[in-house]
Amino acid sequence: MTVHPSEESHPYDQDQPSQNTLAEEQMRSLFNSLPVSLISSIVIALILSLSHWKVIGQAEIILWNLLLCSTLLARLILWLFWHNTHQLYSTQFWLNCFRVGVWLTGCAWGSAAVFLFAHDNAIYQALLAFSLAGVAAGSMTSLTADKYSSLGFVILAITPLSLFIFLEDGPTAVAMSSMTLLFIFFVIASSTRTRRNMEEQIQKNQHLLQLTAELNHKQQLEKIINNAQSIFISDNDIKSTLQNMLNETLPACNSELGFIGQIEKDADNKPFMRALVFGSTKKDNSAMEKFRTMHLPDNGEYRNLNNLFGLVMQSEKPIISLNLARDMRAGTMPEGHPKIHNFMGIPIFNGRDHIAILGLANNIQGYQQEDALKLEPILKTIAQFVQTMNHEQRHAEDRAALEASTQHTQTILNDIADGIITIDKRGTIQSFNHAAETIFGYRARQIIGKNINELMPEPHKSQHDDYIRNHLQTGKKNILGIGREVIGLRRNGQQFPMDLMVSRVFQNGEPIFIGIVRDITEKKHADELRSQFINSASKEILGPLNLIGEALQRLKFKEQSKLPGSLHHVVDIAHTNSLRLQQLMHDLIEMQNLSKGDSSFKMETLPVLSLVDEVLRRNKTFGDIYQNKARLVSASDELTVQVDSARFYQALSQLLQCAFKSSAPDSEIILQVHEERSRVNLGIYFNNRNLLETQRKQLAAQFSNSPDSINNPLDSGELGLAIAKEIIEKMHGVISFNNKAEQHYFLVEFPRAVNQF
């Protein structure tokens, strides 16, 4: 907010802090510590009374307690009044009342030397001295904010006892006198230090308030500028932008009326003003609207230089009139013109060119030259918009051609089924095709100009600008060229899954990011239905199937002798098929868990050769069934990989068993391990005589992620290969299948791990 002279009539002097402010701090500190001080006094008085109850007269103790409690009660009543009515009286009044209460309490404590002094008993004299010393020490903590209170309390509380002891001419007389002087010295020093700390804190607070006021003013101007820029980006209308900017600037400058005019020059190079926008903070604007209709047409030209407007255009410096009625420069106001008390006209420049004027009127406190300086950010922004308007006027034909070209491109983009969104390096949306409108529920004009994070839920919304910034700073392409599944946010707040592919191009040396999005809600729903079906089917099938398998196994191995001979073969076939069906259901469940990421992996760094040896050992019986053997060939025994050993055995066993089944009898499967470019390659070589051509193509397609793997899926008996592929990829490996003339081989690759053995 603009600071005016009337607001600065009492400037803050950092070397001379306000006495009222210091007194207020003292008052708050003293009264806030009063309840604790009263409680401490009661506790000490109670202890002192009980300790002296049988040593001196009880009447004196009771009388002293009544005296002390009266003063404490009076201070409590004072605290209650202050707590509820402190705003009704001055700070000095409350300080004086507090000091009187403290001094009376000091007298009450000092009277303990009269009522509780034990003659000829050094122990109780010392106890009394110790108690009063404790009270005095405590006062230095609670009363240190005011030296008059603390000094008066210590003197009144300790001096009587010091005199009594001194008159007793006892051994502690000199010590008590010295202690009294020390307490007085400490009180003065502590009060001085506390006062200095308070003054420094007040100085810091007032300086902070000044900085806060300046910061608030800057933030207010920044908010006005940001709002104007947002309106311009969304509406692309400079006049409406300037109108909104002027409407927000007027209250920030405590002005009632204002205008923005564009400066142009005629054929004789004389300046004239073309009115752009007018503003008013009045609630009833009917008079202003009527005057504008009659005298202030849109884009009206004002060529009269014999007034304040002309003076601003000619002098090219701020012109201020504090009393327009008496200012000879003002000229005559048209009939019906709103009344103007004071005025400030500020020229606006673009470089050295005078391009606009900002006029403000009717500030209650008047205008100063400093007000124009404080509006510098607003003036620069107006200059940018007016200059933009000039450029738009000069390049109208080029803009029309560009709009036609843009419309043609947008028409093409709107015919594409996928959503296409382009953003700049700041994340601002540049284009939004029709498919994107359908997906997100925004019209292009509603979202263009806004940040792309409007289309994202948290936490990605808050982090997206950092993603782009890191990419621009590091050059890493983690977000480019990779299709991935993310969560989008529709206009109605609904979140949905989508596929996202991001690419980057350069336009005029600046990066432009192109995002292609596809709503996969239906696909995810289908996947969920498939998952539910598999889970339900597994529960409905596996239970009965296990019972059937157990029954068939019992018939085959225990009850077969009781069956007719014609049923023996049937039981064998049924038992074998039940086992195959059980394995199929387990494979389906395993595949589902792997695709959903529900299976956990315990990754360890292990030697490759020991892992492969274990796989060969576990599958030796399987090889014997098919009359085949497997042999390991390795050029190094120090290669290590980071895998889950159990999952590794499972995946490699599936591949090895496929090789055994696919090879002719008496064949040898070669497992070859070697390192290539910091990757461990494991090849499983076998002949292909038992495979049909269609099976070879199908197998190759399965491990190449080609469309053939979808159109021609593997048999149920080969579902284990898909599981093996999923496991290897989950462990950051890569698997491929190579189909050669006389030999197939699986090639499994893992990054080489650091050798820990």
Structure described in brief:
Helix content is 56%, strand content 17%. It is built from 25 helices and 18 strands. The two termini are 71 Å apart.
Question: Can you offer a commentary on this structure?
Answer:
- The chain is α+β, with helices and mostly antiparallel strands and 757 residues long.
- It has 25 helices and 18 strands.
- The longest helix is centred in the first third of the chain and has 63 residues, at 173-235.
- It starts with 18 loop residues before the first helix and ends in a 6-residue tail after the last strand.
- The model is unreliable at 1-19 and 706-717 (pLDDT under 50).
SS content category: alpha+beta
Per the principal axes of the C-alpha atoms, what is the gross shape?
A: flat
Rg over alpha carbons: 46 Å
First and last CA, distance: 71 Å
- Give a count of the beta strands, DSSP E runs of length 2 or more: 18
Instruction: Compute the average pLDDT.
Output: 77
Fraction of residues in β-strands: 15-25%
Q: How are strands sequenced across the largest beta sheet?
A: 3-2-1-6-5-4
Helix content: 55-70%
- Contiguous uncertain segments of 5+ residues: 1-19, 706-717
Give a quick account of the main beta sheet: strands, pairing sense, barrel closure.
Answer: 6 strands, antiparallel
Number of contiguous helices: 25
